[in-house]
Amino acid sequence: MVAGSCSSLPGLCPSCFRCRHGTEQSVTAPRAPAPRPWPSRTVKTGVRGAAGAPEPRRLLLGAPVDSDSDTEGGAAGGEAEMDFLRHFFSQTLGLGTQKERLLDELTLEGVTRYMQSERCRRVICLVGAGISTSAGIPDFRSPSTGLYANLEKYRLPYPEAIFEIGYFKKHPEPFFALAKELYPGQFKPTVCHYFIRLLKEKGLLLRCYTQNIDTLERVAGLEPEDLVEAHGTFYTSHCTSALCRQEYTLSWMKEKIFSEVTPKCEKCHSVVKPDIVFFGENLPARFFSCMQSDFLKVDLLLIMGTSLQVQPFASLIGKAPLSTPRLLINKEKTGQTDPFLGMMMGLGGGMDFDSKKAYRDVAWLGDCDQGCLALADLLGWKKELEDLVRKEHASIDAQQAGSGSPNPNPSTSPRKSPPPDKEEARTSEGEKPQ
Ligand SMILES: [Zn+2]
């Protein structure tokens, strides 16, 4: 539908520093650069073990000292601004930033030693459908999954129409039929999800940027502030009327979906839609605001289960400083763009695993869960990870057995509370939902 309409020159869009929004999925960026939230310098420091005690961090031998490293306690706005501009120009024009080699070898072992060093304090995870496939969730945006075959009775003009906002407003039924089949909460988080949770518990997770809308990151115990749900989430829903925008909860939406009633706003009777990003809709403003500050201070990018095909998410790999190591755990190598094309199109540097100039990118090829287990093993976290998965899955099983609900998330299970249609709608003026 409506493709991106950023009018800035390539690489200079004030909201995203590029203007290729919407080239692949017709997503558009928020128009508005509100007063820019200059990056906060408040950072997490130190790694904590399972018992909460600080773990000793090894200094990586030969690791150069970063004279420009973040300082704790916050920097003056001016300094942060300068930092931001320095980074921006270095990324856009290739100026001023050295390619410092921080990995002693381009292997999982090399990444492990870096993660155990003082230099690596802030990890950003970039994840996609591949981290949820072992939970049984198909990549349901892909027409090749077979899911679309079940929708023949709705006579979609073409499969992707089901996720187009213009089509949805006129014909919401096919989307809700698919949503019933794929309802988030019928699945358990994977080893990979719990590995990210472990990164958080160790004090290493700066943010998890996910393309998934299955809410499994939340089920695995990540908090909203740990997450950027780049393509939205089922967790909340809103009335599609621009004048109303009433918010509804997951359990309210679930009740409608499972009773096969098209969810209608209780204030204005417009259709209510989960807050997932449809083709033709803006990405959440949080994606852009977090991106601007997070990528200034990231020490490691951990890219898992994504083919890096969808913009603008895929461009995130080029937002990190040139020295920042990037580990890809995926079925195949991805993200390798021609460096010249990448620069011209504002995509930043593509991944380089194999050339003579390779210095920071590592690919571990295979299943995401196996990759996380291998990394956890090298880090000495394997047993902790396996115990966490076992404990959490048992807890989900017990909740499902106890409630008869397929929804493993206690905070979203409608069976835990009075009937959702009586209690759950968040009404700003204290109105009683019907
Ligand atoms: Zn409404």
TrEMBL record:
It is an enzyme of class 2 (transferase). Pfam families: SIR2. Its cofactor is Zn(2+). The lineage of its organism: Eukaryota, Metazoa, Chordata, Craniata, Vertebrata. Residues 101-382 form the Deacetylase sirtuin-type domain. It comes from Panthera pardus (Leopard). Belongs to the sirtuin family. Class I subfamily. The active site is at H231 (proton acceptor). One of its GO terms (cellular component) is centriole. Keywords: Cell cycle, Cell division, Cell membrane, Cell projection, Chromosome, Cytoplasm, Cytoskeleton, Membrane, Metal-binding, Microtubule, Mitosis, NAD, Nucleus, Phosphoprotein, Transferase, Ubl conjugation, Zinc. This is NAD-dependent protein deacetylase sirtuin-2. Residues 26-55, 392-434 are annotated as: Disordered. One of its GO terms (biological process) is negative regulation of developmental process. GO terms for molecular function: histone deacetylase activity, NAD-dependent; metal ion binding; NAD+ binding; tubulin deacetylase activity. Zn(2+) binds at C239, C244, C265, C268.
